[in-house]
């Protein structure tokens, strides 16, 4: 099969022919990829940011936002049959550890993570497990929803945590209106009741955020802190969901959040630096957010089926993987990019 593999860090992926994945465990499922989302984490993987953390042996196939059709099943698979359209939760979890039993698949003690620790979906076929699959609603095409498998549930997990705090009369600032942000705005509009302020450097993405339900749009510049505080009568926002996660967004957020506010960190790459006295004096709540669990993806797909979440995406050939990653790195992707084998 054709696949895009990472052979060396800080080098382009290599498009090449490799052996198709094979059923080994009774719960294994081979999925024919209909769409593989392109994520900023893929850039970080190529840059080697995860090298010491994961220790994954090179070369391997990246791609962790996947949807497609069941192609082959293991002997004990009973809930899916060949031809079923599915979206794939990012991890293959054991189902036996305490994290799995509490529903937090992403903290599974024995997880395999296609695209990070084992071969992923920048290919024609992907091996996963029955536990990771969610059936798609009728008439939903895999290439149209693949990014919801990671970008979608990452945004959903953060918004789900923040929504009970987003009461009428409160305000929520969402930083970064790209692939996660445009989903997050829709979810906050659906699940919360706060005024939504969208923040981004790009006017086109801000316009899209307003179309999708944001109440205010603020362009990131030297005046943005005062503009955000003016929108909140000088008090600062109650909730910030930072989907970017740079040193600057961390520092700026501390100046835009009101006392007792909640700072949900989703994007990563920077370092949160704040004196402990400031945390105590302002009673800031700083909360980390990983990608969502299986139930988060199930719930998100229910919301999508009701037409409450629209995914803005552009399709590209798998052959264009390196060009698309380069465009993402340069901020030239509006919404989400999907590779179609």
UniProtKB/TrEMBL annotation:
Q: Does the keyword Zinc apply?
A: yes
Enzyme class label: oxidoreductase
The cofactor named in the record is: Zn(2+)
Q: What Gene Ontology molecular-function terms does this entry list? A: alcohol dehydrogenase (NAD+) activity; zinc ion binding
**Entries under Gene3D superfamilies matching the protein:** Medium-chain alcohol dehydrogenases, catalytic domain (3.90.180.10), NAD(P)-binding Rossmann-like Domain (3.40.50.720)
- Give EC number(s), comma-separated: 1.1.1.1
Query: Which superkingdom?
Result: Bacteria
Query: What catalytic activity is recorded?
Result: a secondary alcohol + NAD(+) = a ketone + NADH + H(+); a primary alcohol + NAD(+) = an aldehyde + NADH + H(+)
Alphabetical UniProt keywords: Metal-binding, Oxidoreductase, Zinc
- What family name appears in the similarity comment? Belongs to the zinc-containing alcohol dehydrogenase family.
Mind telling me which PANTHER family this protein's record contains? Answer: ALCOHOL DEHYDROGENASE 1-RELATED, VACUOLAR PROTEIN SORTING-ASSOCIATED PROTEIN 11
Question: By what name is this protein known?
Answer: Alcohol dehydrogenase
Source species of the chain: Marinithermofilum abyssi
